[in-house]
Design goal:
With 384 residues, this protein is α+β, with helices and mostly antiparallel strands. The chain has two domains: 207 residues, no CATH class; 149 residues, Reverse transcriptase/Diguanylate cyclase domain (Alpha-Beta Plaits), CATH 3.30.70.270. Helices cover 65% and strands 8% of the residues. It contains 13 helices and five strands. It has a five-stranded mixed sheet with strand order 2-3-1-4-5, with helices on both faces. Strand 4, helix 12 and strand 5 form a beta-alpha-beta unit. The longest helix is centred in the middle third of the chain and has 44 residues. The termini are far apart.
Length: 384
């Protein structure tokens, strides 16, 4: 039953992931297959020669746990050497052949080896950068399995000469097998949920990122900018908005022009990202326009950032075009305390960008300070 259940879990995982290959997924399924074979051999004791069946069953269980350790490490982009998940099983099999006449030592060695593999999987899960509840589920399941195996090790080491050793092992073996199956099932569910969470995160990123420039698209930028301004409203930090657009250039006509524009936009986005701090936001606002929200930026510093970007773009020879590609930039201050601060700043930055284009392009224009919001009337104050 345990073997059939493990194979069923493998099939369900394949159906849940919906792909033939994923980060660590193939290794995890191979591990389930190895565990199923180990549990099957363990139930066939008496039908097969004990020396081969029991030692092979323990070796297969260890191989399954090592494969699952490698799967979690691969999922988290951690390094696991090939020998770490291929060699332990065969080595344990050879060692157990020499311990068949010493059942306590046999049980202690096999249990300790499997417990070490499960503890390693829990450690690898703990090192994952994200995962939340699925990561904790996987970690706790592996730790619980390791505790069960350590209890089996303790019985083998502490009670080898005790008259109650045979009764203790007879009672513990089925409990240990069932506990290992339950923890393996919980760990498999946790691993599946980790993959699903990563897939959902990837879909959210695809929905928020412009594929050409790898910056936020307009909708995502506006949402993130609103959230950032809300934080600035609480902290009292000044913010500013830059609206930047490519100046018209003598690109070739037709499909060649489209390819040239795409290359220039990609390179321009890379230049702009390199010139920003970790807390700044950049998004593609139009076909050839970008918006940048500078956080905690004084007015003088904002102009310095704009001038540095303007000079860097001209010096980089984007797209290897001659004459060099230039940009026009509109600068507007942003007052987080003001109602509709983002939309007001966008309107001022767009007006400044339009003025830069009218004045001959290839320049920076700073918008005047936004008009102060009208003070509430007496009736409005009473209503508030």
């Amino acid at each position: 039953m345990l073997a059939a259940s493990a194979l069923l879990m493998s099939v369900l995982l394949c159906t849940g992931i919906g792909t033939s290959r994923a980060d660590g997924f193939m290794k995890w399924n191979l591990g389930l297959g190895s565990l199923a074979a180990g549990w099957l051999l363990a139930t066939l004791r008496g039908w097969l020669p004990d020396v081969a069946a029991v030692a092979a069953a323990e070796a297969l269980l260890l191989t399954g746990f090592c494969l699952q350790l490698a799967a979690v490490a691969e999922f988290g982009q951690q390094r696991v050497w090939l020998a770490q998940w291929l060699l332990p099983g065969p080595l344990l099999f050879v060692a157990l052949l020499f311990l068949m006449r010493n059942p306590p030592a046999f049980a202690a060695l096999s249990s300790l080896a499997c417990a070490t593999a499960l503890a390693g999987t829990a450690t690898a899960a703990r090192r994952l950068a994200s995962g939340g509840a699925p990561r904790r589920m996987l970690m706790l399941a592996c730790e619980a399995g390791a505790v069960v195996l350590l209890a089996r090790t303790a019985v083998a080491l502490l009670l080898p000469q005790s008259p109650s050793y045979g009764a203790a092992t007879t009672a513990l073996e089925p409990v240990a097998l069932i506990a290992l199956f339950v923890t393996s099932a919980a760990a498999s569910i946790g691993f599946l949920l980790l993959h699903r969470e990563r897939a959902e995160t990837g879909l959210r990123q695809l929905a928020a990122i412009d594929p050409l420039t790898e910056t936020f698209n307009r909708l995502a930028f506006l949402g993130l900018a609103e959230a950032q301004l809300a934080r600035a409203r609480r902290s009292g930090e000044p913010c500013a908005l830059l609206m930047l657009a490519l100046d018209p250039h003598g690109h070739p006509e037709g499909r060649g022009r489209s390819r040239t524009n795409d290359r220039v936009l990609r390179e321009l986005a890379a230049v702009l990202r390199d010139g920003l701090r970790a807390g700044d936001l950049i998004g593609r606002y139009g076909d050839e326009e970008f918006c940048i929200l500078l956080s905690n930026a004084a007015p003088a510093a904002v102009l310095e950032v704009a001038e540095r970007m303007h000079a860097t773009v001209a010096a980089r020879r984007l797209g290897e075009l001659a004459p060099p590609v230039t940009v026009s930039i509109g600068v507007a201050s942003c007052e987080p305390q003001r109602a509709g601060a983002l939309h007001v700043a966008l309107a001022y930055a767009e007006k400044a960008l339009l003025d830069a284009k009218k004045q001959g392009r290839n320049r920076i224009v700073a918008a005047p300070a936004p008009t102060p919001a009208p003070a509430p009337t007496g009736r409005a104050r009473r209503a508030a």
